[in-house]
Amino acid sequence: MKAQRCQHRGFGQRLVSFLGAVVTLVGFGALLAFTTTEVRRRTMLSSGDDYFYESPLIDNKNDV
User: Fold this and answer.
1) DSSP 33
2) Which residues contact 41 (CB under 8 A, 6 or more apart)?
3) Tens-binned pLDDT, residue by residue, of the chain (64 aa)
4) What is the dihedral of CA 22, 23, 24, 25, to 10 degrees?
5) Phi/psi of residue 51, nearest 5 degrees
6) 12 exposure class (CB count in 10 Å sphere: 0-12, 13-18, 19+)
7) CA separation for the pair 30, 24 (Å, rounded)
8) CA-CA to 19 of 20 to 30 Å: which in 5, 28, 45, 57?
9) Has this prediction a pTM greater than 0.70?
């Protein structure tokens, strides 16, 4: 009795694996970009220097 060593996967399985890898890489890239942006923003905030930071959700000058 020979074991089938080279079992080919179907096109659907390969497509799902490929799409999973792409989604994983894109998610990791987005997480990395978000982390770098946050680290830069926090170092700028903690440095105490005046710099231009504009965010539509944060407005320190016009607190109501």
Assistant:
1) H
2) 53
3) 555 555 677 999 999 999 999 999 999 999 999 999 999 888 877 776 555 555 556 555 655 5
4) 50
5) -145, 165
6) exposed
7) 10
8) 5
9) no
Q: What is the DSSP letter of 49?
A: -
The torsion angles phi and psi of 54, rounded to 5 degrees, stand at: -120, 125
Q: What is the DSSP letter of 1?
A: -
* Per-residue exposure over 37-50, b if at least 16 CB sit within 10 Å of its own CB, e if not: eeeeeeeeeeeeee
The encoded tokens of residue 29 equal: 């890239």
Q: Which residue has the tokens 């994983």?
A: 24
